[in-house]
Amino acid sequence: MEDRAHVPPPHPAGHITEHVGYRVKRASAALRGAMDKALREHDLTVPQYSCLELLDERPGLSNADLARGTFVTRQSANVVLRGLRDAGLIDRADVTDHGRALPVHLTPAGRRRLHAARTAVYAIEERMIEAVPRRRLAALLADLDTMADALAE
């Protein structure tokens, strides 16, 4: 049997579960699981909810904008948007006056569904935030942004 090549960890870690990436993924999976459960009660998926949030903040985004903002491919965003449109939660123009991007907007039903779901999602985020001392929250958020930016280069 061949010995595993020893590669020193990037920081002191005795076990894989002590690595930063593992812990970030664990937190992400816990958040996703809690959101999945809460959003089921509102007949939404996490990507659908994310699209509704983005459209509430910036009406008229294109499929490409929504794909980037929800961290999915354009093809996946099309599937998400089709589901939202079929449910009557968004309007998407069939044609546009300029360019190729078709702007997407919330319908009144979409706005109502979003606001109901938002309460559940914000309660989850509040539970997560309460686990971190308030004085450390700004630093945690800055550190997470810095780590994401370091990998985007």
Summarize the structure.
By secondary structure, the protein is mainly alpha-helical.
Q: Could you describe the largest sheet, including whether it forms a barrel? A: 2 strands, antiparallel
Largest sheet: spatial strand order:
1-2
Residue share in β-strands:
under 5%
**Rg computed from alpha carbons, rounded to a whole number of angstroms:** 19 Å
Q: Quickly count the helices.
A: 6
Shape: globular
Order of helices and strands: HHHHEEHH
Please mark out the parts with pLDDT under 50 across 5 or more consecutive residues, or reply none.
Answer: none
Count of strand segments: 2
How would you state the average pLDDT, rounded?
A: 90
- End-to-end distance: 38 Å
Class inferred from helices and paired strands: mainly alpha
Q: What is the helix content?
A: 55-70%
If you had to describe this structure to a student in words, what would you say it looks like?
The protein has 153 residues and is mainly α. Helix content is 63%, strand content 4%. It contains 6 helices and 2 strands; from the N terminus they run ααααββαα. Strands 1-2 form a two-stranded antiparallel sheet. Helix 1 crosses helix 5 and helix 3 packs across helix 4. The radius of gyration is 19 Å and the shape is globular. The two termini are 38 Å apart. The relative contact order is 0.11.
